[in-house]
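Predict structure. Chain length: 237.
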Amino acid sequence: MQQVDKFANFAPVLQASICMKILISGTSQGIGKAIAELFLSKGHKVIGIDRQEASITADSYQHFQCDVRDYEHLPHIDGVEVLINNAGTQNQDDIDVNLKALIHFTEKYGIQENIKAILNIGSASAHTGAEFPEYCASKGGVMAYTKNVAMRVAKYGAVCNSLDPGGVITPLNEVVMNDAQLWQEIMQQTPLKKWATAQEMAQWAYFLTMVNTFCTGQCIVVDGGESINMHFVWPNQ
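Prediction complete.
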């Protein structure tokens, strides 16, 4: 009986039913905004950091307008329970924003005793290499760093994973979304013949940080099957 009671202490408690302190980078648009809005709808306190002005108005939302690379001026925030590294770019600053700033952000806010979950928004391109060189390299670094952090926050009972999307309907992707020819070509590579919405990615982010209590150190591809799509060529029999 004593042994049963001992192991009962390790029974997972779903965090989703508790109001928690959530810190999210890159909340002005796209996936980050959708994640913030979902957490707010669930009754959590959300803090957003973005170099653009706030696009969310809610009593439980606090916004800091700051570039994640501006290490000296990042706000002092205590007691973060869930950290979501969403801020990212796809230009000459890929390594600085997507990897270096993410590492600094995590070390500042995530590696501490109050943390329950850390989620990095990576990319399916980190698994396939099928994108711009610096972008793939930056997201590949996120994969390795995710595993490193998972080992270090385990002592707090916390999990750390990366959510690695394929195509997502966001303003950053409008350059191909609005080109009929390119869009048709993209759909040929995607078995489900669609891209995810930012709200769908937010659901994954919520599950991995608020429901999940055991999966950790994993880099989870959510790309509609694009990365497993193989054009097998064989003569008709």
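Summary: Helices lie at 2-8, 30-41, 94-109, 125-128, 133-153, 174-177, 180-188, 198-211.
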